[in-house]
User: Which sequence fits this backbone?
């Protein structure tokens, strides 16, 4: 019995030494990685600059900006130049029964300028609608930016967690291989039964399957990282929470979500758009006053052959009052009113969703704190338990299977801790997004903030030009 206990203790000491060596190697590798690591703020800055979804939304917003100069065109004169030319054969029968004929080459050139003086306030309201659509679009852009940054946080922490899981599973497989080798030697010496060897082999195969699953998850998370961030992940630094930017309590979170979340603000602007669109529709029922001036010159255009050319200049005002258009304008007005009512209901719905998201994010963040604390306690307890089992195995009071079970408990506890730490970081950023503050300015990222108003002011008062401000 003493000899068997001594051999078991020898196994336990070798297993412990192997675990210590692997731990040292992992720590050294992590320290070396940390020296050249890409941190989370850098990854967020790259995603903010290069993410295709976000850049596509910025292009959409630039297109929305063009709605304002299009509406402002209603205030400006419309100038049209015309040129007509052709061939004309003329044969005139005169009173004295003589025939007068000629082959003419008539042409007319002219310029017409039309200025709208009053159109039932349609232009003014259309400009207001376009400006409100720009404001709504900016909030939609901000919302997409929040989503991209949150996606970047998620993929970053997923890669980081999966890298840690792969390292832990590789360490576990090495531990199990060593244990299986020692058990087989003991079987050959007659110290253990084939059952012990089968148990060690089964545990090794389980460890290999867990390692494969962790490597598959890591490969998938790395591909997703490349899609969102724009580059392949290599050495990632630790991800920290953003607790310093978060509200103090749940009520504050709900209040901030109502006031600052871009989805709520965009829906509020949409209500204003719909309300103003009613006045645009009603303008079709009001009179329109225009002023038109024109000049023209024509040659050989008189089929009587009485004149060779004509020069004309005119200026005239015109008043049009719709009487009945088949009910089109009335229907459009009723339609606009229904859309306005719909937009108000959508605003209420978005506010409710923002409230639910804020409460959910707050609860999830608080729950993540508890989960991390519990997982840390579990790892500490599992570590103490493993050390105790190893000492007892060295004294002959425990078997190799007991050591393996305790090691497995520790590996599972570490996996849960890694997942809880990942969820803790994501939960803090999710709460920051739920209150509408997940942006470059709040996070202090090392990248210029995209300012949509710059493009807006570049094109708002543009009277001409086909090129975009970027030169396209």
Assistant:
């Amino acid at each position: 019995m003493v000899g068997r206990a001594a051999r078991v203790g020898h196994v336990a000491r070798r297993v412990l030494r192997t675990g210590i060596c692997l731990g040292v190697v992992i720590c050294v590798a992590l320290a070396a990685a940390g020296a050249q690591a890409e941190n989370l703020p850098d990854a967020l800055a790259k995603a903010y600059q290069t993410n295709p979804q976000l850049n596509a939304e910025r292009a959409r917003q630039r297109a929305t900006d063009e709605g304002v100069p299009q509406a402002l065109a209603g205030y400006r004169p419309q100038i049209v130049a015309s040129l007509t030319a052709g061939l004309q054969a003329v044969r005139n029968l005169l009173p004295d029964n003589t025939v007068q004929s000629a082959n003419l080459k008539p042409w007319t050139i002219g310029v017409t300028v039309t200025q709208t003086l009053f159109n039932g306030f349609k232009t003014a309201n259309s400009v207001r609608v376009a400006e409100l659509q720009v404001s709504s679009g900016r909030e939609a852009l901000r919302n997409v930016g929040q989503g991209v940054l949150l996606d970047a946080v998620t993929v970053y922490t997923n890669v980081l967690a999966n890298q840690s899981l792969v390292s832990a599973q590789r360490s576990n497989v090495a531990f199990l291989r060593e244990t299986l080798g020692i058990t087989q030697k003991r079987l050959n010496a007659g110290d253990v039964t084939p059952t012990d060897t089968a148990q060690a082999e089964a545990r090794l195969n389980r460890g290999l399957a867990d390692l494969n699953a962790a490597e598959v998850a890591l490969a998938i998370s790395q591909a997703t990282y490349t899609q969102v961030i724009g580059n392949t992940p290599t050495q990632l630094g630790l991800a920290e929470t953003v607790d310093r930017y978060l509200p103090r309590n749940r009520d504050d979170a709900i209040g901030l979500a109502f006031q600052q979340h871009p989805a709520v603000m965009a829906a509020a602007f949409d209500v204003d758009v719909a309300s103003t669109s009613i006045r645009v529709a009603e303008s079709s029922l009001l009179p329109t006053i225009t002023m038109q001036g024109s000049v023209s010159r024509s040659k050989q255009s008189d089929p009587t052959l009485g004149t060779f050319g004509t020069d004309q200049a005119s200026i005239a005002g015109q008043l049009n009052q719709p009487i009945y258009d088949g009910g089109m304008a009335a229907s459009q007005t009723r339609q606009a009113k229904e859309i306005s009512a719909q937009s108000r209901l959508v605003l209420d719905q978005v506010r409710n969703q923002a409230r639910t998201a804020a409460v959910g994010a707050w609860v999830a963040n608080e729950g993540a704190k508890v989960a991390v604390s519990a997982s840390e306690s579990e790892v500490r307890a599992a570590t103490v338990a493993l050390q105790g089992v190893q000492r007892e195995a060295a004294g002959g009071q425990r078997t190799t299977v007991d050591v393996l079970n305790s090691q497995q408990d520790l590996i599972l506890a570490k996996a849960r801790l890694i997942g809880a730490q990942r969820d803790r970081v994501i939960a803090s950023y999710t709460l920051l997004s739920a209150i509408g503050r997940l942006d470059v300015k709040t996070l202090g990222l090392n990248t210029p903030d995209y300012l949509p108003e710059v493009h807006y002011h570049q094109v708002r008062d543009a009277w001409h030009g086909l090129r975009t401000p970027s030169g396209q």
